[in-house]
Amino acid sequence: MDLAVGSDDGDAGTRGARGLSPVPTDMAAFEAEKPSLGSPGWGSRGRRWAGGRRALLTGAVVAAVVLGTVGSVGSPLLEGTARGAASPDGPWPGNKKVSPPPDDWPQGGTFSVFLCKDRDPFEQCRERAITAKQRRALEARLRSMPEVAEVEFESREEAYANFREANADNKVLLSAIWLEDMPESFNGRLHRWRDLASFGSAMDKVPGVSNVLTFGGFFWQGRADVVVSLCGRKGTIFACKGRGPATVRERKAVGAKLVALPESESVYFENIAHARRVFAYVWAKKSSDVPLPESYYIKLADPAGAPAIIDAVEGMAGVGSAGRADEGCYWPGIAQECSGELS
């Protein structure tokens, strides 16, 4: 595989996907997109402020839960390891090479089923909390479903403690969200990725359920310690200020730099086509129109060497961001700035 994948346009990586395995056939079952959040209800005029606050904060809580959840998605689900691939044309320092991603994908998936609470803004809750009888029925159903590998109940107090721990550095968010804003939930794993959509649809219809989140495993979890994303198309969150996407020359220069660094053990190049597959696998939704960037994923002999890798490529032409792969900056669909200047 030549490192100079595709052309210099914003979708440069698409043509380079020929050497990659196709999306698993199960992906075909996920053609239809569905919204993940319910529609907030504002209540009567006398409750407008409180209802508005609940609607806004419920969205913030769900977003925070998503960020906390995806950070751990996939770690117990990955099977197999990265495999070698043909090296690009031309010599590379230290006999290392930039390889395409391996072909094996994570197994299973994870879920969070959130329960209605008093005056919940989700339309299906009708501002009423789940009853004890409904909660028992839901738990019994989850534990009896053959597609569910494991399930645990999380109380409001546990959710609030976990939320505060995960957002310890965000004083503004901590001051805005209270214990009463946190929902109870059932969290667990599914045996098969193909069951994500049907499971989510079934749980959406259960009385007392406010919202359901399902995730497939993240492809790069455990395979990379650092991610270096290249400048994306203009007008997207991955665009670099004052310029267009990374050129072939810039792409090759960044790759050569990464393989030359002694901290690098394996360097993988991910084109846009593969990035969209990763997005679709995590979120179980169509990804053909998602403006994702090309990236390098680097596995280190010692993860402690990540700062050296990041420092070495920051500021290079064509680099949009560089960061540790465990900091969430690589997650497609969640716009977080790792480093570098994004427009």
Characteristic terms for this protein:
9 strands; 343 residues; disordered N terminus; four-stranded antiparallel beta sheet; alpha+beta
What does this structure look like?
It is built from eight helices and nine strands. The chain is an alpha+beta fold and 343 residues long. The protein is elongated and about 60 Å long. Mean pLDDT is 74; it is low at 1-56, 66-94 and 328-343.
Order of helices and strands: HEEHEHHEHEEHEHEHE
Structural class: alpha+beta
Query: Mean of the pLDDT scores?
Result: 74
Classify the helix fraction into a percent range. 25-40%
Largest sheet: 5 strands, mixed
SS field, number of helical segments:
8
Distance between the termini: 31 Å
Q: Which strand-content bin applies to the residues? A: 15-25%
Low-pLDDT segments: 1-56, 66-94, 328-343
Topology record:
Blueprint: H1 48-70, E1 98-99, E2 109-115, H2 132-144, E3 148-154, H3 156-166, H4 171-176, E4 185-190, H5 196-204, E5 209-216, E6 226-230, H6 248-260, E7 264-270, H7 272-283, E8 295-300, H8 306-313, E9 319-324
Question: How is this structure best summarized?
Answer:
The chain is built from eight helices and nine strands. It is α+β, with helices and mostly antiparallel strands.
